[in-house]
Design goal:
This protein is of the alpha/beta class. The protein contains 27 helices and 29 strands. It is globular.
Length: 884
């Protein structure tokens, strides 16, 4: 082992850049197909090519990097496959904005030139996030990086579309879909974000055709009545029993429409009578289908009234609403309008209110694909962690609807379907030369592209070369783990399971880790647009990558993680603690080799037992995907047991002069413990903090190769000793009690003290006697007397601790009168402050009218002052017992 000392301070930037470059140059992240090893693979949730790192990315990719680095250390053939998604709508919007700066539009360029511009943008400005992931230390196999529109991937997308079409699972139909009037494209149900908005529920009179009577219909969208084809009531509603089968005159349009009965109508909503507009409402579309009703589309693609809307043609939907209401008011047909809070769908990209819209689109039949995917989770082949997310998955899958997969964009996978003059449709992976129906050659390809989520649903196998049977595909599929956010369980997770089972006849992964959503400290979703987002790159610049990663993981135990930058400050301090402790050890090592086991004392055996327990419990945590708990255990062990206790206990042996064999043996045993613990601890910590562990590992000279491929620590040869650990807990309690007395009387560390301990249990006396050197080292006690019976000494402060009565002799260390005067003055001051606080809190005007945070501060102040008052009262009591 060749060691070298560390610099006085840890500078993350220099070390992180140095090691990441070395890792890349030496191909440390490149996975190899090796049948002699167990495969372990993760495919990265591909960020949008337009994207930049946000806190969700930072947390999710830290989780994946921890898992992949651990797998490498376990000797597995580990692949973390990276890549990006072409992000149809988002990328097209970005490039269109760039064109607008030049005074151009995509229409002016034409589809071919526009697509070239997007590719050019992608090469020059896209993939920003890839560089940011490298900044985090992500150990992806960059040699296998994929893009959802690279050549091989595009071939896979076409193959899947054609196969699903040939199997009757893809069809083209005229159905109602979610339409974005700004992006001018269809959206799937789960691409619509619903937001509760305050609106109105208008009650409108619909006159009967053959009488002066009328029915009152309640609606939140009166403009769509221009496309009404019926009014529906529940057949069980006694109010409308005699109206079913009669006709109404549609106001403003003078169209005769029937009153129909349908059990889907909610009798408690509005008036219990609903207008039926099949071309502009999802539920109405279903009603229209059941009753064979006409479907009248009254809007253009831009959500303006078309020629089917009578005199309102040309108005946008909001202008039409005002005009329709005005005309209804004038005709005396508005019975009333009431305020109404209702969910309104918005485009997930541009946030425009979506329009339910009747349109010719391509759809996937989902139920046949969903059934085996449901079974794969039920039978345990795929498990969700935490398990509760399985219910969310089942709820959606068991009520799944057909998926609208066509998008009216230019950027994306153009649908491989060609239309012929004869009306035939040819669907094939290659450009056809003749129609499959009539043999004609005048074919036009469908202009639509596929939903981005269609191509990303193939990610686990298409990235590995499918439909070719590649070595990667045979070895690394199915993948091991998917780590993802809860909001794409529907969008992506479920669809990958369905496609994997369909095309690979196997699951895409064994475990789905649903990581927490990163929230602001007050529990709101982070948003750059709202100014509540935090840039992970700023955090890395401020704290370093290791501290940022560890700080994120250690606070990720809750499903809604309230991000606290204080945890990153704590983690930075932890990195510095590790660095400084390592530096101290390196400076004091005298070349003892790890290998032979020297004679160890109780403190040595205790820290090895604690370390063994850390390794065992950490592996249990990993098995349960509880990385936050592992991080906490790592922190508590190293800072607490190892640094605060063992290093302090061992210093007397470490610094002892080698003037006799006993002193040399003591020093050798300490060096052995230092090296044994640091060797295993750095390996345990490495997946969490890759940079600082690599640097320290190289300075200790534990191995000629990178820590990346060092064995994962299991603590072979180490033993847990619960009895010994319990003994040391007693030692720690005694030390804390003595330190507390020292602090109470402001005894400087340089002042040596005398301690007496009484204990009636002879076995415990023997134990304490053997541990007295530890107690002395940690408390500055020059003399410790331990007896089964003691006469309570004068001039001493006492503490009771279970079977132990502890006395710290104070003669010559303090002036009792001066100390009592100081404490009494402080007590009077505290009581005065406490009286003021209590006066406020007993005042109803203050507690009811003052801001909540102000009241809470006063309550916290009361608790703090009360605690300090009790502490000083105890000190004064102890002074009173000092009989000088």
């Amino acid at each position: 082992m060749t060691k070298s000392e560390l610099n006085t301070g840890y500078e993350p930037k220099d070390i992180e850049e140095k090691w990441y470059s070395k890792w890349l140059e030496s191909g440390q992240f490149t996975a190899k197909v090796d049948p002699a090893k167990e495969p372990f693979s993760i495919v990265i949730p591909p960020p949008n090519v337009t994207g930049s790192l946000h806190m969700g990315h930072a947390l999710n990719n830290t989780i994946q990097d921890i898992l992949i680095r651990k797998a490498r250390m376990e000797g597995k053939a580990a692949l973390w496959l990276p890549g990006t998604d072409h992000a149809g709508i988002a990328t097209q919007n970005v490039v269109e904005k760039e064109l607008a700066k030049e005074g151009l539009t995509k229409e002016a360029l034409g589809r071919s030139l526009f697509t070239l511009r997007v590719w050019k943008w992608k090469e020059e400005s896209g993939n920003t996030i890839i560089g940011q992931l490298k900044k985090m230390g992500c150990s992806c196999d960059w040699s296998r990086e994929r893009f959802t529109m690279d050549e091989g991937y595009s071939a896979a997308v076409k193959e899947v579309f054609v196969k699903l079409y040939d199997d009757g699972l893809i069809y083209r139909g005229n159905r109602i879909i979610n339409w974005c009037p700004r992006c001018l494209t269809a959206l799937s149900d789960i691409e619509v974000e619903h937001e509760d908005l305050e609106g109105h529920l208008w009650h409108i009179r619909y006159p009967l055709q053959s009488s002066a009577d009328h029915i009152i219909v309640a609606t939140t969208r009166p403009e769509t009545m221009l496309g009404d084809v019926a009014v529906a009531v529940n057949p069980a509603d006694p109010r409308y029993k005699d109206f079913i089968g009669k006709n109404l005159i549609l106001p403003l349009m003078d169209r005769v429409i029937p009153i129909i009965a349908d059990s889907s109508v909610d009798m408690d909503f509005g008036t219990g009578a609903v207008k039926v507009t099949p071309a502009h409402d999802m539920n109405d579309f279903e009603i229209g289908g059941r009753h064979g009703l006409e479907m009248i589309n009254i809007f253009s693609e831009a959500a303006k009234v078309n020629e089917s809307g009578g005199k309102y043609v040309g108005l946008n939907r909001y202008e039409a609403r005002k005009a329709v209401l005005s005309d209804l008011e004038e005709a005396g047909l508005v019975a009333k309008a009431v305020s109404h809070l209702h969910g309104v769908g918005h485009c997930y990209r541009c946030h425009t209110v979506i329009e339910p819209y009747l349109s010719d689109q391509w759809f996937v039949k989902m139920k046949p694909l969903a059934e085996p995917a449901i079974e794969a989770v039920k039978d345990g082949r795929i498990r969700f962690s935490p398990k509760r997310w399985e219910k969310v998955y089942f709820d959606w899958m068991e009520n799944i609807k057909d998926w609208c997969i066509s998008r009216q964009l230019w950027w994306g996978h153009q649908i491989p379907a060609w239309y012929c003059e004869c009306g035939g449709v040819t669907v094939t992976t290659s450009n056809p030369t003749q129609c499959s129906s009539c043999g004609g050659s005048n074919l036009i390809q469908d202009e639509d592209v596929l939903d981005t989520w269609f191509s990303s649903a193939l990610w686990p196998f298409a990235t590995m070369g499918w439909p070719k049977e590649t070595e990667d595909l045979k070895f690394f599929y199915p993948t091991s783990v998917l780590s993802t956010a809860r909001d794409i369980i529907y969008l992506w997770v479920a669809r990958m399971i369905m496609m994997g089972l369909k095309f690979m006849n196997d699951i895409p992964y064994h475990t789905v880790i649903v990581h927490p959503t990163v929230m602001t400290i007050d529990g709101k979703r982070m948003s750059k647009s709202l100014g509540t987002g935090v840039d992970p790159l700023d955090l890395i610049e401020k704290y370093g990558s290791d501290a940022t990663r560890f700080g994120l993981i250690i606070q990720s135990q809750a499903q809604d993680m309230r991000f606290s930058e204080e945890k990153l400050e704590m983690s930075r301090n932890f990195v510095n603690k590790i660095w400084n402790a390592s530096r101290l050890i390196l400076m004091n090592l005298k070349g003892h080799e790890v290998g032979s086991i020297p004679e160890l004392d109780r403190a040595d055996l205790w820290i090895l037992s604690k370390f063994k327990k850390l390794l065992r419990e950490s592996n249990d945590d990993f098995a349960n995907n509880n990385l936050s708990q592992t991080a906490k255990r790592i922190y508590d062990f190293f800072w607490g047991e190892f640094c605060d206790w063992y290093l302090e206990i061992s210093k007397s042996r470490l610094y002892a002069k080698d003037d006799d064999e006993k002193a040399r043996a003591g020093r050798v045993s300490v060096e052995y413990i230092y090296l044994t613990v640091m060797n295993g601890f750095l390996r345990l910590l490495h997946p969490f903090m890759p940079f600082v562990t690599e640097e320290i590992w190289s300075r200790f000279g534990f191995s000629d190769e990178s820590i990346i491929f060092s064995p994962w620590p299991l603590g072979e040869g180490l033993l847990e000793d619960d009895s010994l650990e319990a003994d040391f807990e007693r030692i720690k309690d005694i030390v804390v009690a003595i330190r507390s007395i020292r602090a109470s009387f402001s005894l400087a560390p340089s002042k040596e003290i005398e301690v007496k301990i009484e204990c009636a249990d002879s076995s415990k006396i023997e134990f304490l006697a053997s541990a007295s050197t530890y107690i002395s080292a940690l408390t500055g006690a020059k003399e410790i007397e331990i007896k089964d019976k003691l006469k309570a000494p004068k001039k001493a402060a006492a503490a009771a601790l279970g079977p132990f009565q502890i006395y710290v002799l104070l003669e010559g260390l303090i002036d009792v009168d001066v100390e009592r005067e100081r404490l009494e003055k402080r007590l009077a001051s505290i009581e005065a402050d406490l009286s003021l606080v209590l006066g406020k809190l007993m005042n109803d005007n203050f507690t009811s009218k003052a801001p909540k945070d102000v009241v809470e501060k006063e309550r916290a102040k009361k608790a703090e002052l009360t605690l300090e008052k009790e502490k000083i009262a105890l000190q004064l009591s102890q002074l009173g017992d000092l009989r000088f």
